[in-house]
Specification:
hydrolase, 10 strands, alpha/beta, ABC transporter ATP-binding protein, six-stranded mixed β-sheet, Rossmann fold, ABC_transpr_CbiO/EcfA_su, 10 helices
Length: 277
């Protein structure tokens, strides 16, 4: 049984326009890291909003732990699947950071002691100790994003879905955020699903990659399988990450070097190609 599964999922915001999602088939399993790539307007955000019942399909189905989302189980679904919006201002609104992180757990009906324990834990995990008494609207975009993630994580979901989590972050912020997200499956048993334009990081932190174009899934596979498909990447306005792009250029110039997609594999390929191993 998959944690999340869509079957021929279709969605349209108006009967007068084409489907925003068309026959989308997607699965997420336990402790996976799943990247969803595609240009703006591909339907990534719309797909994500189906995962915890914010919007409903026009046709097809969305299953969470094998069950359709209904009014009766919507509360449990939203405990199980946490969604972090692209714009943290849509999610961060309390008087202080501490109150904002506590908002979700209190809405689950948890007692004050449990809420306080969860708030302390996630504030520590995300390095928000110095901000816990600050007003969220005084924070930077990167800080607000961390608060939004902390608020969702405090609800202890089994699936965390992040819509363009790197939007508005500087390079150091991107590195820190992805380092944190990369550790979540092993540390907390959480499945992480995210959309991003930062293809450089995908080989290091995705087990499965989905590519979307015009509301459809056009490719699915491991990072290596996806990044081997140049036509697929071109249609989705995506480029190879820098390391495999460099290696491919060297191969095209007749240099015998093995293909690689992560830093560690690329290092080994270079050492082997130039006789250092």
């Amino acid at each position: 049984m998959h944690l999340i599964e869509t079957r021929d999922l279709c969605h349209a915001y108006s009967t007068s326009v084409r489907d925003v999602l068309h026959n989308v088939n997607f699965v997420a399993d336990a402790q996976q890291r799943i990247a969803v790539l595609g240009p703006n307007g591909a339907g990534k955000s719309t797909l994500f909003r189906h995962f915890n019942g914010i919007i409903q399909p026009k046709s097809g189905s969305i299953l969470v732990r094998g069950e359709p989302i209904t009014k009766a189980n919507l509360h449990e679904v939203r405990k199980f699947v946490g969604l972090v919006f692209q714009n943290p201002d849509d999610q961060v609104f309390s008087t202080t950071v501490e109150q904002d992180v506590a908002f979700g757990p209190y809405n689950l009906g948890l007692d004050a002691e449990t809420v306080a324990s969860r708030v302390d834990r996630v504030i520590s995990m995300l390095g928000l100790e110095d901000l816990r008494s600050r007003a969220p609207h005084h924070l930077s975009g990167g800080e607000k994003k961390r608060v939004a993630i902390a608020g969702v994580l405090a609800m202890e979901p089994q699936v965390m879905v992040l819509d363009e989590p790197t939007a508005g972050l500087d390079p150091q912020g991107v590195k820190e955020l992805f380092g944190f997200l990369n550790d979540l499956p092993a540390q907390c048993g959480v499945t992480v699903i995210y959309s991003t334009h930062q293809v450089e990081l995908v080989p290091e932190m995705a087990d499965v990659v989905y590519v979307m174009e015009k509301g459809e899934i056009t490719g699915v596979g491991t990072p290596e399988e996806i990044f081997l498909q140049e036509d697929l990447l071109s249609r989705a306005h995506l480029e190879l990450p820098a390391l495999p792009r460099l290696i491919k250029s060297m191969q095209d110039h007749g240099i015998a070097i093995e293909s690689a997609y992560t830093y560690r594999d690329a290092e080994a390929a270079f050492l082997k190609a130039f006789g250092k191993t």
